[in-house]
Each structure stands twice: as structure tokens, then as C-alpha cells.
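Known limitations

Files may contain more than one protein. Parsers should not assume a single record per file. Below, a two-record file is shown to illustrate correct handling: read the sequence, read the C-alpha cell line, then continue until end of file.
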Amino acid sequence: SRRGAPDSRQLPLSDESSDAVSSFIMLHQDIDWEKAFSEVVRGLRRGGRLLGFDLLANRPMRRLHQAECSHHRMMRWDKLRREIQELPLLGMLNGSLGGFTVRFALQKRV
């Protein structure tokens, strides 16, 4: 039998079971990226780290994904910051020059 990729909004992880998670250009590919983000945090142990890099909403990226007929919902900087503030996370978000990408180094609160 063939297994597909897990649904990022319902990860096959036990609560607080991972020491670290990395996310590389994944969240923007999920229409409900906020739920996917909170799922990752659910799976992190207290003190666990979330390191990532992703694309942010901007005109060129939206046009590229529209041209590809992609069903994406790009993350906005302000929305990502609010989402992180609502979750039990500490750390840094670093946007790139021009607002094309974001890097994050976060830790789940102890």
C-alpha cells in the first residue's frame, strides 16, 4: 500500500513529543497555515525549538502562485507575528529585505 504525506493540520505526533521541528518553505503551501503552525507547536516539548524559513505574501509571490494555479494562501508578516504571540512561543522572526521571506527561531515556553 502507498502512504501519502501527513496532513499538516493533523500531524501524527503525540503532544509534546518532539525536541525540535524544522519547517522549510512549507507553511505557505497550506491554506490553513495557522492550524498547521499550531499543530507543530502542539507536538513540541516545553523548551523545544522550531526553526524555519518561509515565503511571505507580496505581489510577485502572489502572481507566481496564481500563474501556477496553486491553491496557496501566503502568510502576511503582521498575521504571522500575531499568531506567534498567541501561541506559547518565544523567539525571533527575521524578515528579509523586500519582505519576500521570513526566518524564525522559536522556542516553546517552559
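...continuing to the second record:
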Amino acid sequence: CVPCAQEMPELERLYPALRRNGIELAGISVDLDPLQVVPDYLAQQGISYPVFVTDESSIPSIFAGEEVIIPTSILLDDAGRVLEVFSGWSTESQQAIHGLVESESVAGAH
């Protein structure tokens, strides 16, 4: 999807800083294309953070609400607690993730 293609390079750029601050990033592809399409795309784009591939039967479990908004980004701390959930990709979600990295860097420095 176009928003995913916009989000992924930015998340890739932030991935090292997120990890340094104890925030793990993982993607879940809900792409219904053949299985090999996603790994090939990730390799072409240079995406190194883990991206898991699912199939159509998993979508209702992943998106239990009435709306399916992709991309959905869920940031977890090193204890597995949800820090933030971002639905869609926008300037606001990009700024919020940058802000989270910066605040976690400051928090981790103390």
C-alpha cells in the first residue's frame, strides 16, 4: 500500500535508535499477494527490521475493530508493553515516533 511504502523507509531509518532505547519494531504484512512478494519487496527496499507475513485468515484477529487502517504501527518497550499505537501514516505519526525516540533517549540518559 502507498502509506506502507511511505512509512517503511522512515521506520527503517529510526530502527537503530528505537532499538538503542529498548523499543522493538516489527511489521506484520497483511498483503494477500503470493508469499514471496513481501520478502522480495523488503529486500529491494533495504528493510532490516523484522516483518512477519500472515494470511487472510489472520486479518480478523489482527484487526478486531470495525475499521481496518493500514499501516498500523505498534511500538513496544523492552518488557513487551505497548507504548504507542499509530493508525495510518501521516506527518503527525512520523513526528510522534520521532518524539518518542527523542524522549526515550533523554529518559535513557538519566
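Parsers that stop after the first record will miss the second one. For reference, the second record is described as follows. The chain is about 45% helix and 15% strand.
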